[in-house]
Structures are given as structure tokens and as C-alpha cells.
Amino acid sequence: MTTVIEWQNRPLDKVYPILIMDALIVKVRDGNHVQNKAFYLALGINLQGTKEILGIWVEMTEGAKFW
After folding, report:
1. 14: containing domain
2. Could you state one GO biological process linked to this protein (predicted)?
3. pTM above the 0.70 mark?
């Protein structure tokens, strides 16, 4: 868990010339049920051309309200 907290608090570059945002629908087990959840991803490509995941958010559904 400390690795996740360190990743969430890492410093980001000041500039990402390319930013890609998308949502993936994934089946997730929740107790005895399997349900679809939307995983929102923000991917940045820095000035050196390296791809970096900037953030991941999980919601119950995908929709314009989140964006």
C-alpha cells in the first residue's frame, strides 16, 4: 500500500504535450456479485516521449457527469 501512496504523491512534470483520457469497463467481484465498473485513466506523454499514467479513478458507471 505504501507503493500506491508514493505513486499518488509523486511529482508530475509541468508540461505534458499529449494527454489521453479514456474509460475502461471492467468486471469486478464485489462480495458474491460481479459487476461492471468504469476505470477512468489519464495518460500523459512527456517531452521525452515517455508515457506516464497520471491518474486512475474508479466509478460505478461511465458517463459525461464524470468527465
Report:
1. 2-59
2. DNA transposition
3. yes
Per DSSP, helices labelled H in the chain are 2-8
Which residue type is seen at 13? D
Distance between CA atoms of residues 6 and 16, nearest Å = 21
In angstroms and rounded to an integer, the radius of gyration of the C-alpha atoms of the chain is 14
Whole-number Cα distances in Å, 58 to 9, 22, 51, 55 = 18, 12, 21, 10
Q: Is 57 helix (H, G, I), strand (E, B) or coil?
A: strand
Query: 12-59: per-residue pLDDT in tens?
Result: 999 999 999 999 999 999 889 999 999 999 999 999 999 999 999 999
Cα-flanking dihedrals φ and ψ of residue 6, to 5°? -60, -40
Task: Provide the sign of the torsion angle of the four alpha carbons 46, 52, 58, 61, taken in this order.
Answer: positive
- Give domain status of residue 64, yes or no: no
